[in-house]
Amino acid sequence: MIDAEAVYAVWLREFKVYLREKERVISSFVSPILWLIVFGSGLGASVSLHGVSYQVFIYPGVLSMALLFTSVFYGIYIIWDRKLDFLKEVLVAPVSRSSIFVGKMLGGCTDAMMQSLILLVLGVLIGIPLTPATFIYSLLILFLTSVAMVSLGLVLGSNLTNQEAFNLVINFVIWPLFFFSGALFDVTTLPPWLSTITYLNPLTYGVDLLRGAILNVQVFPTYLDFSVLIVFSLVMMWLGTVSFGRMQQSK
Amino acid sequence: MIITTNDLTKKFGNFTAVDKLNIEIEEGEVFGLLGPNGAGKTTTISMLCTILKPTSGSAKVNGFDVSAQPSKVRSSIGIVFQEPSVDDLLTGRENLEIHAMLYKIPREVRKRRIGEVISLVGLEDRADDVTRVYSGGMRRRLELARGLMHHPKVLFLDEPTLGLDPQTREHIWDYIKKLSKEEEMTMVLTTHYMEEADMLCNRIAIMDAGKIVVLDNSTNLKKKVGGDIVVLKMDNPNLEKIRKLSFVTSAESKDGSVQIVIKDVDRNLQKLLCKVGRIKSVEVRPVTLNDVFIHYTGKEIRGGEEEGSYWDRIMRSEVNR
Ligand SMILES: Nc1ncnc2c1ncn2[C@@H]1O[C@H](COP(=O)(O)OP(=O)(O)O)[C@@H](O)[C@H]1O
Ligand SMILES: [Mg+2]
Asked: Is A24 touching B (CB cutoff 8 A)?
């Protein structure tokens, strides 16, 4: 079903385009840096959580936020791809829809991982306590989270047809995923109704793992975090392949 | 028959874009779908190349059903889309390399094949530039090269010269003619330029409002109009009288002149001129496909500038990103 060469072809195209779209590369790490500086140092200067300064505490959250935005946006962009562009050329090619989906998905993960890499290096520079081992472990967690989030974006994008839908997704999917993920606060101190919402959010588990890896502050058991992310990713990949199979040219 | 359709239909909501289409296309022919904007040409091609699902009816391409065996159909075809579809941040060669991987062209022959199609469309000098800096005609040539590099059984060309300047258009025509001669590939092309259909196609299906109005080769289509065209410039023509003449097929007045279809113009022109009275000028011209279109639909195929030039469409696609 999955044809490695087709996956590679689709991925290669995405990667080359990514490297050549300089604005995209630059903007994808400028905004999280601003977040970290403004939010972390200004607002939370005197606050400390779990024995670390707020800036350090939200660092994994900001990493996750950057990843979330890059990943889901990348996915929904196929609303435009479907009208013109390379996607039509790929859809008429004799390759399985799952290969196209996986190639596209890995393309998005690559964007997200480039960004994560830069932000992790930056983290080391601003004094986040990262060892080589936790650095690599964090990358692994971020990769898994991006698989989940890019797939979600692609599922949404391949089922939507217009710009209005795009705005709806930003307001009703991306922002809630971010706010109810524990990226900015400690999920254990929330009122029960709110914590229930965060427990339903797959991103919560990615943030939890990352905070565990970087700050040693983790709410759920590691196996649970991983299971949720993996199951969610598999479901999204399955839905995505089905959606790609049904996808038609749109005007 | 390499392509057959059986009541192929596509509806968008209540609107029927393609209405019970039945066509048969023979292997090796260049088949034209000629019709005005909105006739349903692109919709037809999209169904034949499996990126749009028919609402009802069926179609077979190279013996495979477009709904039941889409991947078999996909490996039999190549397509040049109406809208620009090369990746403008990749070079011409990179676009072709990715295509080669998607179509599983064996690694050993890939380089050679890419070189062949690049020189076929005359892009040797520019193959390693990103296509963003290509002219509209160069992009079209690259798309042509890409569409045929995997040697498809059928090549679809959707408005191959839409929005290109006349000189570039003739270039593309030359490539298409060369291809149909050298590669013995079946080609299905859509166009709303009559001269394009006339020049390139063995058989032409005239399409209007989702239906095939008439289908034949260019010579026979023109015969169906029933004669040659005589245009008379004159005041107050008596159309009734002209139409009653035995050798006149039809007569219409149009801004200060009368357009008459007349049988056997060599013998009958003299007679006609005797009967109509004072005229200011006379012009005799052969029937064009435009006349055929008017004959069958009562309207003209208008120029396609409403759809914008190739550049407008590229700009639009970039703004849409
Ligand atoms: N995805 C779509 N949704 C709604 N209407 C469509 C869609 N695609 C095409 N149409 C309509 O179907 C008709 C035929 O379109 P098309 O096949 O593009 O015509 P042509 O290629 O002959 O110019 C047009 O009226 C067009 O507006
Ligand atoms: Mg069209």
From this structure: no
